Amino acid sequence: MTELKPKKILIVDDESDVTDLVAYHLKAKGFQVEALNDPNSSVGVARTFVPDLVILDVMMPDLNGIQICRMLRADPKLKRVPVIFLTAKSEENDRIQGLEVGADDYISKPFSIKELILRVQSIIRRLSEGRADEPKKLQIGEILLDIERHEAFVSGQPIDLTATEFKLLRLLMERRGRVQTREHLLINVWNYETEIETRTVDTHVRRLREKLGTEAEWIETIRGVGYRMAERRAQEAST
Hints:
Elements: E1 8-12, H1 16-28, E2 32-36, H2 42-49, E3 53-56, H3 65-74, E4 83-87, H4 92-100, E5 105-108, H5 113-128, E6 137-140, E7 143-146, E8 151-154, E9 157-159, H6 163-174, E10 180-181, H7 182-189, H8 199-212, E11 219-222, E12 226-229, H9 234-237
Parallel strand pairs: 1-2, 1-3, 3-4, 4-5
Antiparallel strand pairs: 6-7, 7-8, 8-9, 10-12, 11-12
Helix pairs in contact: 4-8, 6-8
């Protein structure tokens, strides 16, 4: 019986006390950890280490976390690796900017190491989840999700989705016609058990719609409640 390889976590923060603390607790949970205090070497190390998740500070000299995240998302080998921003910047606009460049989560300093570990475990768990009886493909209109290959297509053309965007779209497609509240989405997509900033959901939906292009209208906004994957396209429903 072969042993499962430990999941790999890359931590990038210019403060060594932060990387030492986070690395210590992640290793104690069985993760393989690479910690860096030099942001300039982060992308190169990521390409060789190929992490399952990246914990990334935003406010760093020379190369900040936003820039690094953009570089990761532009790399074919790393574009789907989940990113958690860990930073002292806690303003709403900063959180939104982090999510818009492709981050999957955002935790403000000072932070609870227990909460950070739970967030890491949650993302790793949902990426590893799978049911034997789950459908291999989902299609609505010109949107096609290949579950096994973790690929998405619109009108036959591939689109690049982050791990969170893929999970969000999949849930909406699987529950087509049923309204999903923002709180429900936070629990089922982000695995959060406590109430957090629901703007996280809105930001991801907006970015997902942009990537869906002409098929974006399938995702309906239910004002004051949440979102739903429509039963029919808007123009079909009006005829």
